[in-house]
């Protein structure tokens, strides 16, 4: 819907295999009454008000492979992290199963490690009310 008459579609990979850009993510979240807030990684993660954040989307480099042959290339990959109870889970589709990260201190350390990899980006998934009020800080 973002570019219905464009060929190739500028919002996904040339091969049409996903790798959607952030505009697609934001439009999909908006349809659910949610928003993605870009996190400036120069800010300390301790400033995050985790009780107002529903989940996290990370855009991270992912190695390209042909079968078992790893190529010296990487492409962007979306990873979701969200809490279930008091434990945060890594819901990366490349993992066999969701992987527990731990509680808030472990989450902040996990995010710190991921953001140290260049070029990685972090988006906070929040309700529209939280986005408008800025209460994720």
TrEMBL record:
<dbReference type="GO" id="GO:0006508">
    <property type="term" value="P:proteolysis"/>
</dbReference>
<dbReference type="InterPro" id="IPR040053">
    <property type="entry name" value="JOSD1/2"/>
</dbReference>
<keyword id="KW-0378">Hydrolase</keyword>
<feature type="domain" description="Josephin">
    <location>
        <begin position="1"/>
        <end position="137"/>
    </location>
</feature>
<dbReference type="Pfam" id="PF02099">
    <property type="entry name" value="Josephin"/>
</dbReference>
<dbReference type="GO" id="GO:0016579">
    <property type="term" value="P:protein deubiquitination"/>
</dbReference>
<keyword id="KW-0833">Ubl conjugation pathway</keyword>
<keyword id="KW-1133">Transmembrane helix</keyword>
<dbReference type="GO" id="GO:0004843">
    <property type="term" value="F:cysteine-type deubiquitinase activity"/>
</dbReference>
<feature type="transmembrane region" description="Helical">
    <location>
        <begin position="20"/>
        <end position="39"/>
    </location>
</feature>
<keyword id="KW-0812">Transmembrane</keyword>
<keyword id="KW-0645">Protease</keyword>
<keyword id="KW-0472">Membrane</keyword>
<dbReference type="GO" id="GO:0005829">
    <property type="term" value="C:cytosol"/>
</dbReference>
<comment type="function">
    <text>Cleaves 'Lys-63'-linked poly-ubiquitin chains, and with lesser efficiency 'Lys-48'-linked poly-ubiquitin chains (in vitro). May act as a deubiquitinating enzyme.</text>
</comment>
<keyword id="KW-0963">Cytoplasm</keyword>
<dbReference type="InterPro" id="IPR006155">
    <property type="entry name" value="Josephin"/>
</dbReference>
<protein>
    <recommendedName>
        <fullName>Josephin-2</fullName>
        <ecNumber>3.4.19.12</ecNumber>
    </recommendedName>
</protein>
């Amino acid at each position: 819907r973002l570019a219905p008459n464009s060929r190739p579609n500028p919002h996904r990979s040339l091969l049409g295999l996903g790798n959607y850009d952030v505009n697609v993510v934001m439009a999909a979240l908006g349809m659910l009454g949610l928003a993605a807030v870009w996190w400036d990684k120069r800010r300390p993660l301790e400033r995050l008000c985790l009780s107002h954040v529903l989940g996290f989307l990370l855009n991270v480099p992912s190695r390209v492979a042909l079968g078992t042959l790893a190529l010296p290339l990487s492409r962007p990959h979306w990873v979701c992290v969200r809490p279930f109870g008091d434990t945060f889970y890594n819901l990366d589709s490349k993992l066999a199963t969701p992987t527990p990260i731990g509680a808030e201190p472990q989450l902040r350390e996990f995010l710190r490690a991921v953001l140290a990899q260049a070029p990685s980006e972090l988006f906070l998934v929040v309700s529209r009310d939280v986005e408008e009020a800025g209460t994720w800080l």
